[in-house]
Structure formats: C-alpha cells, structure tokens
Amino acid sequence: MIIELPLGLGPVSAELLLIILPALATLVVFALIFGGDGLTKQTRRRIERVRTANSKTITPEEIVSIRRSNTDSEIAFLDSLIKRLTPRPELLRLRLASAGYGSSLGRYLSICLVIGLIAFSSLQFFDIVPLLVSVLVGLFAAIMLPHLGLSLMIIRRRNRFIANFPEAIDLMVRGLKSGLPITESIKAAGSEIPDPVGTELSRITNTVRLGESLEDALWDTSKRLNIQEFNFFTVALAIQSETGGNLAETLSNLSDVLRRRRQLKLKIKALSSEAKASAYIIGSLPFVMAVLIYLINPGYISDLVEDNRGIILICLGFLSFGMGIGVMYKMVKFEI
C-alpha cells in the first residue's frame, strides 16, 4: 500500500510508516524522560529561591511545601491520565519503592512505552510476523519486560538487605548496651551500614523526627520491604514497647536467629544446586536439538512451523514444558 505524503514529500509505503512513527514516538519519549540536565523546572526554581533567600524577602506564596508529592508526572494531563488508566497504582508505587527505584510512576510507564515501541518497530522493520502479532508482542514486551526487570531489582535489593541486616542489629545492640535509646541506636546503624539497610534505617529515624511514632514508622517500612527478617525485628520492638524487658538481649538473639536462618537457606541452595543444574540441561535440550536440526536440514523442521498442526503441537509442547518447570520449581523451593 502506497501513501502520498503532503508537502511534496512523495509516496511512502504504509509498512515504512509503521516503522518510522513508533521510532519517532520512542525518540520523543526518550527526550521527555532523559532530556535536560537532570533537574526539573520545579527543582531549579527551588534552588534559585534558596540561593537568593539572603538577598530578598520570600513571600508566603513562594514558600516551598514540604508535603510528600502525590504527582506521577510533571505534566498535569499525563498525571491525571496515569491516575485514571493505571490499575492499582498504589501497588505499583510500592513495588517501585521496594526496588529502590527513585523515579516517579510516570517515568516507569514511559520506559514501558519505549520498550513496547522498540519491540514493535523491530518486528515490523525485519518483517518477521504480521502486524497484529507485532502489536501483541509489543504489548507483551511493554508489560512483562519492565515487570520482570523490576522483580529482579526487588530480589537483589532484598538479598542485600538480608545479608547486612544482622550486622545492623549488632550495632543497635552495642548502642543499647552503651546507654543509647533505640532511636539513636537505629540512627547510628543507619549511618554505618551500606544501602539498602542504611537507607531504610535512616528513613525510619527521619520519619520519627517528623513526629511519627517509632512503631508506625517500622510497620510502614515493613510493608514497603516485605521481608520476613525485618518483620521479626518490627514485632520484637513492638512487643518490647508494650511488655518491657531487656531489648539488647532480645535483639542479640534475633541477630543470631537471622544468621542461622541465612545459613540454612545457603545450605538448601547448595543441596538443590545439582537438581537445578540437571533441570537446566534437560530443559535446554529441545531448543538445542531444534537449532541443530535446522542447521543440518532446514526443510525438515520448517514443516513444523508452516503447518497449522505443527504450530498446535509447538503450543502444546511449550504448555507441558512450562508445567514441568513449575513442578520442578516447587520441588526445589523451601520456605524457612
């Protein structure tokens, strides 16, 4: 199909337009996300007001609010669009906070859009599949790839937190034994332990300084992290605040329990590594054999893709393959 463009630009095929338009949209989104020097207009205005605070009197209208921002985008239209069309935005914000991703929800959704457009444009450029399949693949890539990437970020951050959290508890115990209150001990541990433990503990102390109770700050952090080890710590402090007792001894025992818990997880991982390696090898054999057969005799395996019956068999094979992976995953996964 040939389309005659206005302004004397000449005829252009519809397939070429389907490639050019998503590419231009991707460039525009990239420019909106990463354009400029990294500072928003609002941030520049605040910095300028701070710089000139000593040289002029700031009116009440110019005073910057310290309330937590509830906007997902700097553009009002996009912000309202995100709030209306995004399903369960609070859950997505919580996942972003759990991953330590400091950007707004609008930037995350923009990245999803860019990934979907890149996948769609790539399939259309190489003319691999029909238009409808390209659209479906683009939607799948826009939804699943950022979701999987965010899940990996959450898992890595949780593992780092679990590895360093017993050391932070030991610092709190030493602070309590030296006569410091629990809030000061948490502050000291937050300044000594690296991210993410130090960041989360410092956030707790800052929240307490703003007037929130320690128990509420701990439960908010526990909801954001969703880590059992931190839940144990929160419950221990909540019970001690109500019943009393030797908090230093309680936290010392908790640190020992967390270390033994991590050692048991590593032992289970070592014992199940052989079964996992076998599963990886057996699971990769169908794909390796398909590639080898295609290299030796392409016509022999092409009938499986070109015939509708072969496509049905491939779908059934992937279904049984996924079920087998799920069963093996459940067999080697242990809850401690």
Secondary-structure blueprint:
Elements: E1 2-5, E2 10-13, H1 14-34, H2 41-51, H3 76-85, H4 89-98, H5 105-126, H6 131-177, H7 182-192, H8 197-209, H9 214-225, H10 228-243, H11 247-271, H12 273-296, H13 298-306, H14 308-332
Antiparallel strand pairs: 1-2
Helix pairs in contact: 1-5, 5-6, 6-7, 6-11, 7-8, 8-9, 9-10, 10-11, 12-13, 12-14, 13-14
Question: Can you walk me through this structure?
Answer:
The protein is mainly alpha-helical and 336 residues long. Among the domains are: 175-266, Receptor-associated Protein, CATH 1.20.81; 272-332, no CATH class. Helix content is 76%, strand content 2%. The protein has helices at 14-34, 41-51, 76-85, 89-98, 105-126, 131-177, 182-192, 197-209, 214-225, 228-243, 247-271, 273-296, 298-306, 308-332; strands spanning 2-5, 10-13. A two-stranded antiparallel ribbon has the order 1-2. Helix 6 (131-177) packs across helix 7 (182-192) and helix 12 packs across helix 13 (298-306). Mean pLDDT is 78; it is low at 1-12 and 32-39.
